Fold this sequence. Notes:
Strand content: 5-15%
Strand order of the largest sheet: 2-1-3-4
Largest sheet: 4 strands, parallel
Order of helices and strands: HEHHEHEHHE
Number of strands: 4
Amino acid sequence: MxxxxxxxxxxxxxxxxxxxxxxxxVAGRVxxxxxxxxxxxxxxxxxxxxAPALLVVGDSLAVGVGAQRPEHxxxxxxxxxxxxxxxxxxxxxxxxxxxxxxxxxxxxxxRYAAVLVAAGANDVLRGTPIRDVQCxxxxxxxxxxxxxxxxxxxVSANVGGAPILPW
Length: 167
């Protein structure tokens, strides 16, 4: 009986140590991600009022977290390929799909050549119900369609399958 208790205690202690180590790694990666997000700068570029304009909305992917410089982000690379393109940017780290409408309304009131949307990862990370995402995205797309003839949605990789996530 004493041996069984000792074995059970050892297994429990080992499991607790593994969980503590796993939590410590996740916490460290979250801190690293927050530091990257704090340093990220949105890419924007002004130009003549009659120049074609791109509006960028969304989350940290839209902002370009992880890019060495704003010019290396997706909006920055598009601007390099289209030198006469004006880029207005309202994306924000941590944004969810429900925030896209407010970002759109915060942009200069004009007709855009296109709206670039990068969102969804934070909804996965925070467990937003899919119905809420669908409703918010449907409302946003209707509103964005009034501002631009083209709305492009990009998403990050399979966020739910990232090894950092405990589930």
